[in-house]
Amino acid sequence: MKLVVQRVTSASVEVDEEIVGEIDEGLMVLVGFGENDTEKEADYLARKLAKLRIFHDENGRMNRSVIDVEGKLLLVPQFTLYAHTKKNRPSFHKALAPDKATVLFDYFTSKCSEYVDVETGEFGAFMKVSLLNNGPVTILLEKEFE
C-alpha cells in the first residue's frame, strides 16, 4: 500500500464538473493498493497517517498531527502509484484489481474517519484534483507485510 501525503491549505476533487470532495487545512492523500494488500496494511497506514506530525507547532517545528490541528483528510484513489515503468508505456499489473481495491479503499476511508473528518475522490472516475500545497510538504508512506 502506498500513500502520497501532501500537507495542504486547501484541496478538492472534481468529477464531471462537480466537486465531490473538498477540504481546507489538512492532508490530501493519493492512495494506491498493491496486489497483496489487505486490511492489515490499511489499519496500519490509517493510524500512521492520522498521527504523522507534519504540521507546525508554536515554535515552527513539524510537531503536530492532522488530529492536533483539527484538519481533514482528502483521500483520492490512485492505482497509478503502482505503475511499472521499465518500458516507456507503464503497466499496472502490480496494482490491486479494481473490485478488491474499491472495497479496500472504502475500508481505509472508514478507518481514517475514526480519527478525523474525511472527504474522498470517486473510485474509478476521471478526477481533477486541485490543491494548495502548504510548505510544500510531500511525504511517501508505504507498508507491506509479509
Could you tell me the number of beta strands?
8
Number of helices: 2
Beta content comes to: 35-45%
- As residue ranges, the low-confidence spans are none
Class by SSE composition = alpha/beta
Helix content: 10-25%
Rounded to the nearest angstrom, the distance between the terminal CA atoms is 13 Å
Shape: globular
List the secondary-structure elements in sequence, H or E.
Answer: EEEHEEEHEE
Question: Any overview of this molecule?
Answer:
By secondary structure, this protein is an alpha/beta fold. The chain is built from two helices and eight strands; from the N terminus they run E-E-E-H-E-E-E-H-E-E. The strands form two sheets. Strands 1, 2, 3, 6, 7 and 8 form a six-stranded mixed beta sheet that branches. The protein has a two-stranded antiparallel ribbon with strand order 4-5. Strand 4 (55-56) and strand 5 form a beta hairpin. Helix 1 (39-51) runs parallel beside helix 2 (98-112).
What is the topology?
Elements: E1 2-15, E2 18-23, E3 26-32, H1 39-51, E4 55-56, E5 62-64, E6 72-77, H2 98-112, E7 118-120, E8 128-142
Parallel strand pairs: 3-6, 6-7
Antiparallel strand pairs: 1-2, 1-3, 1-8, 4-5
